[in-house]
Amino acid sequence: MSGAGVDSYPRALALGGAEFEIRFMRAGDEAALLAFARELPPHDLLFLPRDITHPKVLAAWIREIERGAMTTLLAFRGDDVAGCATIVRDPLSWSPHVAELRVVVATAARGLGLGRALSANAGELAVATGTEKIVAHMTPDQIGAVTVFETMGYRAEALLRDHVKDAGGVKHDLVILSLDVDAFRTRAAAYGLISEELA
Fold first, then answer.
1. 133 - beta bridge partners?
2. What's the whole-model pTM score?
3. Which of 127, 145, 128, 144 has its CA nearest to residue 136?
4. Which domains does the chain possess?
5. Which residue, 17, 33, 14, 31, is CA-closest to 73?
């Protein structure tokens, strides 16, 4: 990924007395990311299209990053991954203006605002490359995640019944939230949340 904002990484971030470094994921991060993924509650993996607790999936992830199909930001606390945010956008699809945002935060780092910070940073990168709409998937019972996205301007757009199946074979609904970038900017400018120049 190239463009606005890319040169400003890595970024230092202080949240709730904890220090984090946010930077782009790259080859060599697989071991740290695997350790992070395997500590996540199984339910948190349901809204990701693949099980990131498998090394083969992480290897494929790196390949997708290297070919420019995905952009991932990792939040490190020391040597450990505390969270990640991925933007997936296919400029050759019928929806080149739409990007999917996937965010996961370690249990120990929740409640600090890290998920919101990662979402905002990844969203900035997506918008800088021409994204007009951002979507996020999660199960409806992930109330904390849904609330964070809604306070950022995302709105529920669809509910897919029994769409994902966990390792025990139990089916779960999947909710799709979306953010219309232009509409959000217009509303934010009207309320004085951003300058009119950025709207």
1. 98, 180
2. 0.86
3. 145
4. 6-190 (3.40.630.30)
5. 33
Better-scored residue on pLDDT, 168 or 193: 168
- In angstroms, the CA 134 to CA 123 distance is 8
User: What's the pLDDT tens digit per position in 125-169?
Assistant: 988 888 999 999 998 888 888 898 998 889 999 999 999 888 888
* Residue 173: partners with Cβ closer than 8 Å, 6 or more residues away: 139, 140, 159, 160, 161, 162, 163
Residue found by looking up tokens 């040597």 in the block: 79
Q: Are 137 and 47 in contact (CB under 8 A)?
A: yes
DSSP of 36-73: HHHHS-GGGGTTSSS-TTSHHHHHHHHHHHHTTSEEEE
Burial class (CB in 10 A: 0-12, 13-18, 19+), 157: middle
The four Cα atoms 137, 47, 87, 5 give a dihedral, to 10 degrees, of 80
